[in-house]
Amino acid sequence: MPSKIPSSLQNFCDMTSRKNNPPLPPGIRQVVPPAWCADCDVCCHFPEKNSFLAPYFTREEITAAISPFNKGGLRGIFGTGGMGELKTGCKITLIPYREGYICPAFDPAITHCKIYDARPIDCKLYPFAILWNPSGKEVLLGMDTKCPFVTEHAEDGFLKEASLEIASAIESPPLLDILASNRDLIGPYQDDVIPLITLRGLTNRII
After folding, report:
1. Global confidence as pTM
2. Tell me, what's the pLDDT at 13?
3. Which of 86, 90, 117, 124 is surrounded by the fewest CB atoms within 10 Å?
4. What is the mean pLDDT of the chain?
5. Is 141 left (phi over 0), alpha (psi -120 to 50) or beta?
6. CA–CA separation, 6 vs 33, rounded Å?
């Protein structure tokens, strides 16, 4: 994997993010260049079927993912009761793949998400993550070191800049309201996630 990000590639990444992502949620940009994602076997892969790391979809995101107009439609893999019984959202049901499990929206043959344009906030944030602090009393924004790009570029200025932008977006409507209504988007504390920013506005909304 490359150790330095060419400015042209970073610009392409930023433009792709703005072009492909819907207008909501604002303030979230894809920080990992596509070349890294294409060679990675971390994202979308999970060690167990009921992994707490499985992507969480809000009710609105479920609707978008199972849309009949979406070629990668995922009807039937969100919970067991169907959309009529989902009041907020839920985690997607992982499927077996080799020694572990993958997100059913992920196509391992081409290492690409089949619902990329409709992927949830949970995925758009990555490699950033929203999680509780060790005491469970504050919500943090962190950066996941399981991502190879983060491992190599954790100290780079543009990642720190992106974290500030994302934290600001999370602490403002509409993301603040979405997160407050979908608390399962907040994961447990993880030792391999670097704590970056305490999200005081979100913490105050839910505690």
Report:
1. 0.82
2. 38
3. 117
4. 83
5. beta
6. 10
